[in-house]
Amino acid sequence: MSRTRLVKTTQKSGFKYTLKKFARQKYLQMMVIPGIIWMLIFNFIPMGGIIIAFKKYKITRTIAEAPWVGLKYFQDFFQDSNFTSVMTNTLGISFLKLILGFPLPIIFALLINEIRNVKFKKFAQTISYLPHFLSWVVLGGILTTWLSKTGVINDFFVWLGIIKEPISFLGKPEYFWGLAFISDSWKELGWSAIIYLAAISGVDTQMYEAATVDGATKMQKIRYITLPSIAGTVAIMLILQVSSLLNSNFDQIMNLKNSINIARSQVIDTYVYQVGMTQGNYSYATAVGLFKSIVALILLVIANKTCKKLLGRSLYR
Amino acid sequence: MRKTRSSKIKRSTGTLIFDWANTIFMLIICFLCIYPIWYVVVNSFNDAHDAMMGGIYWWPRMFSLENYRTVFADNRVLQAFKVTIAKTVIGTSVNVFFTAMVAYPMSKNYLVGRKFYMAMGTITMFFSGGLIPTFILFKKLNLLNNFMVYVIPAAFNFFNLLIFINFFNEIPPALEESARIDGATDWKIFRSIILPLSKPVLATIALFAGVGQWNDWFGGVMYMTTRMDLEPIQTYLYRMVAQVGSNQVAGSISAGNISAQSTTSTAIKLATMVITTLPICLVYPFLQKYFVKGVMVGAVKE
Amino acid sequence: MRQRLSKVLVLLIVLVTVLSFMGCKRDDKEQKGKDNDKNVEQTGSDTGSEDENNVDDGEVVPGWQVNADDKVDLTWYLHFSWFTTPWGENLISQTITEETGVNIEFVVPAGNEAEKLNSLIASDSLPDLITLGWWEGQVGQMIEDDMVYALDELAKEYDPYWFQVADSGRVGWFTQEDGHIYGYPNSSFSPADYEKYDNIPSNQTFLVRKDMYEAIGSPDMTTPEGFKAAVRAAVEKFPEINGQPLIPIGAHEFGATGNTSFDQYLCNFLAIPYEKDGKFYDRFTDPELIRWLKTFRELGEEGYLEDDIFIDKRAQMEEKIAQGRYFCMLYQRTDFMDQQKMLYENDPDSIYIAIDGPKNSNGDPHTLPGTGINGWTLTFISKNCERPDRAIQLCSYLMSEHGQLMTWLGVEGETWDYVDGKPTMKQEVRDILKSDRAEYDRLYGSDSAYWMFQDNAMALQWTEPAGPPLQQMEEWTYKYVISTSQYDVTLPAGSDEAEIQSKVDNEWGRILPKLLLAKSEAEFDNVLNDFIKQREEWGFDKVLAAKTVLMNEAKAKLGLN
Questions:
Q1: Which of B2, B114, B125, B176 to probe the A interface (max A CBs under 10 A)?
Q2: I need a surface site. Which of B22, B294, C12, C118 has the fewest CB within 10 A?
Q3: Was domain C204-369+489-558 assigned CATH 3.40.1650.10?
Q4: What is the predicted ipTM?
Q5: Which is higher by pLDDT, C69 or B83?
Q6: Which of these, C456, C486, C471, lies nearest to C554 by C-alpha position?
């Protein structure tokens, strides 16, 4: 509330007032401006390169020399016979990760926080974040072996009696989305939980003590103390994940896709890599990248507005 | 910790069941997370030829240190480690303090131009010019074949800034107000009040930035065009694990006679991975103390 | 407090500036290098003109001999991410540096090679020497846009000796329309070499596991019927290998554009021609190939095409070869030498041997492409190179017989001796080479560890039989090898035809597994017909027409017709 009022007064008093205000907060501005300059240099200057999405760019010539081709590369992408399947796969995997995957690290962080034994708490935290450090190139190889008909996972499931016959998991297209979701959740569970753990550790323990005195149950404490305290972090993460719906975990998909499951495993990122980057077609790759960026920005604005309305939280406060 | 102990007395059966279930659940998660690592480790300690036969799950079949000896026999490994450590320490400190410094004023609603700055930052999260324009820029800035390419372009991160802002917003404004009344400048408030209160978030961002620095192989691959001695260890590892399959390209096109370039065996790759990953894994337990206890408490009370 | 902080900040800024200036300093050095270069150019051109007269007299002094005391550093980009042998640590590289005065720093990309090379080109920061495959699009781009030196001009100016060591056939083949040659090949065999030598190998083989094949009575596998019977018999007799199911048919990894085993190799085994009626032929829709693909489909329907071959990447395949899990496979023999050696050590009968594979309905002999005139890589000298004189001299050194002996066999007296007038590798050196290639490269680095100028044709005179587990596979290919240089054509990058070709390739890569996994022959035909229709829509005829033109140009250059 107070902010809107402030903005209004600024508008009323005009440029001079703003300048005065600016001068008054010179220390604050001196702290921000280096960051702005950094962004101008390292983000905005190279951003000029986006223009090649509308040009036929050749690496041996400068961007200025490249001839304009308008929206050709966007058309190429949208009219590609594989467009629908690639789009479906991208969204399918992303939605799985968003709807089922997003709450997991939060729940995990809450559960870890409930461990009483401090040593075990630290141990569990440390162990759970280790898979993050396995690179997909190596992990992809290991998973290919484990998920094969003769791999440990089949052995284990058959032993448990969940399945009767070994299944070639990577050889069944219908399993791919699930596999991509599960393997990614498993690998990043502990790592993604860190940010929530940090937020939880910022909560004043006296609030819990007071609640305990008032006879609050564990669930009540989580609901009325912990969750509101980490809502800001949750909002940021949620908004960012929504906006990245068209992104995929490139390394993961690259290392798990194969010629059988390709119908369900080819996503935008891998497809563009295959038909654009490996052929040196930077214009095409840039056009698709630009399309993705615009969609992401729109999604961000929508998610941000929605979050603000529903939770009173947004990316910027 | 004293509090945990005192509350023990009041534990109900419901809480007890929850605690047990939670512990068992955590043990399962721990197993799922540590087993692949264990698998990598035992295979790396097995004879490379024998490991190819597969089927090593719990313990090395033919114990051997040969894989590790092979990795350390390469002189480049030690040099690459030095580069990685240097870039992680320097790059991380610069990123954390620079980003925090920019984030603090941005957390103030009354900052002139805040909306504009925020919009700029948001754009940087989604739009990028791509590799070639960045490469050309780095060349013009003299960052190619320069250690600073690991530090300066990684000095700032808008996502980290958002996390900082979110945290700074949770700090009670009363603390700053009282300092301001005492005549402290924003600089001083940031330095002596905000930063000391922000240890959990500083630790988080340091962890993100540090792991990012440690794991980054791309900079070494792309931006070192003559100074191969400035390549970090992850570039070395990536070179090794990503090499599989490239031989075929030549073969499929012209049956090119590639003379006996065999690929590195999996066991040696795994050994390299263990060596390059272990140090950064060990950092987390040291940062953990900042996550476990609430640092804010004492300060807010005052 | 505040002052202290700002001091820290100022210090930081100063530090950063100083460090980035250090980056600039290198440039100063480079500037000096350029000045030196000018001096060299002057003296170089003087001697150059004198030497030019000497070319005919055959008294040319190799350029590298003159400069051994003047040490220079050259950077050398290799477009092959798997290359890991450093320079300056083993005997061969040290000796070469000593003899030529040139020290080399290799620049090798990791992962996606094109990304790095394209960035280097786009930002005009190519290293001194560049080696890449002749088929890469960047070859044409670097030449067209004047980023590399003409080798013949450099040679004329700085090292006339180059003309003595350069093979005139190869120079002729790679000379561009402007009359200059920009990149020099390695592993190049001219059609004339095919007349001269009868031991030129191919990499493409059809392999079976020896003990299994013999146990089922060494059947004929050249006809679809014989092939199917053999596969069935093998599975019946050996359902499992060490408790794991047998994989009856093995192949290379499926990629974005197909599977070399089931398209390229199979075409070659079936002796499908590259041209028909003077036109570049579309081999992938040849009835003979379709007939065999349908055979594989039938085997797949019966369960003999295991999922593994569609899923596995090379690392998994290598493991399975080492375990002897495949019965037969169409595979590049040079891709599993380590595994073959391991199998041999365990049990000499469990190795893979090459036998006659799928043949066309006439039973024509296989036509396996050996390395052609294009060879494998081309090496360029970049215009950024400040010492092109030394670069070209290094090239001549490596191309010469002396250099070839160095890279193949090493230093006389240390790694090899003359035995009966023939250079022969010492036994103890050979033992290391055979048992531990990595150790061998670390100590010596010959046997073409530095293959950038390897002249396989010249090296044939020094080669010795590869030894039991590898020799049979190699020798089996000798009688089937043909030269296909005139068909190794690449469409110019960025042209319409190249774009269509890449679309078609990607589509083929998508449908090939579908063809093999089709549930019925009708489904197979449907998928194939859709593909052919789709191709026509894209204008595949234009591609074939363009390739026909290129093929005819190549023929004219090679003096065929």
A1: B125
A2: C12
A3: no
A4: 0.85
A5: B83
A6: C486
Chain segment C149-207, per-residue pLDDT in tens: 999 999 999 999 999 999 988 999 999 989 999 999 998 888 788 888 888 888 899 99
Please report the residues numbered 456 through 475 in chain C whose beta carbons come closer than 8 angstroms to any beta carbon of chain B: 456
Please tell me the distance from the alpha carbon of residue A300 to that of residue B126, in angstroms, as a whole number: 10
A186 touches chain B (CB under 8 A): yes
Q: How is residue C481 written in tokens?
A: 């090898």
> A158 versus C439: which is more confidently predicted?
A158
Q: How far is residue B23's CA from residue A117's CA, in Å, rounded to a whole number?
A: 10
What pLDDT score does C36 carry? 42
| pLDDT tens readout for residues C332-375 | 888 888 888 889 988 999 999 999 999 999 999 999 988 888 88
Q: Where are the domains of chain A?
A: 55-310
Q: In chain B, what are the domain boundaries?
A: 2-44, 66-295
How much is the pLDDT for A149?
Answer: 87
Who's near C168: CB < 8 A, 6+ residues apart?
Answer: none
Do the beta carbons of residue A189 and residue A104 sit within 8 Å? yes
* Cα–Cα–Cα angle for B200, B205, B206, rounded to 5 degrees: 95
Position C59 scores a pLDDT of 67
How does strand C377-381 pair with strand C326-332?
Answer: unpaired
In whole angstroms, what is the distance from residue A22 CA to residue A10 CA?
A: 11
B97, closest residue in chain C (CA to CA) = C9
Average pLDDT, chain C: 86
Extents of the domains making up chain C: 2-50, 63-191+374-468, 204-369+489-558
How far is the C-alpha of C559 from the C-alpha of C484, rounded, in Å?
Answer: 14
Token code pair at residue B293: 């206890």
For B216-225, C224-233, C523-532, which range has the lowest pLDDT when averaged over its residues? B216-225
Model confidence at C7, pLDDT cuts 50, 70, 90, reads low
**What integer is the mean pLDDT of B1-22?**
66
> Looking up tokens 């036998």, which residue turns up?
C355
User: Could you tell me which chain C residue has the CA closest to the CA of B242?
Assistant: C111
Nearest by CB: C308 against A60, A148, A255: A148
Taking 60 as the threshold, does the pLDDT of residue C387 lie above it? yes
Q: What is the rounded CA–CA span in Å between residue A218 and residue A115?
A: 12
The answer to whether the CB of A25 falls within 8 A of the CB of B112 is yes
CATH of domain A55-310: 1.10.3720.10
- Mean pLDDT, range A176-181, rounded to an integer: 95
B301 pLDDT more than 90: no
Quick check: A274 contacting C, CB < 8 Å?
Answer: yes
pLDDT value, residue C56 = 45
DSSP string, C201-259: --SEEEEEEHHHHHHTT----SSHHHHHHHHHHHHHH-SEETTEE-EEEE-PPPBTTB-
Per CATH, the homologous superfamily of domain C63-191+374-468 is Periplasmic binding protein-like II (3.40.190.10)
CATH of domain B66-295: 1.10.3720.10
CA–CA distance from A88 to each of A91, A245, A251, A259, A292 (Å)? Answer: 5, 11, 19, 18, 14
Strand duo C102-107 + C72-78: pairing: parallel
CA distance A125 to C180: 65
Distance from C-alpha of A285 to C-alpha of A288, rounded to nearest angstrom = 5
Q: Which residues of A fall within a CB distance of 8 Å from B35?
A: none
- Whole-angstrom distance, CA of residue C286 vs CA of residue C264: 12
Question: For helices B13-44 and B266-281, what crossing angle results, to 10°?
Answer: 130
Nearest by CB to residue C447, choosing from B70, B260, B265, is B260
Give the C-alpha separation, A233 to C485, whole Å.
Answer: 63
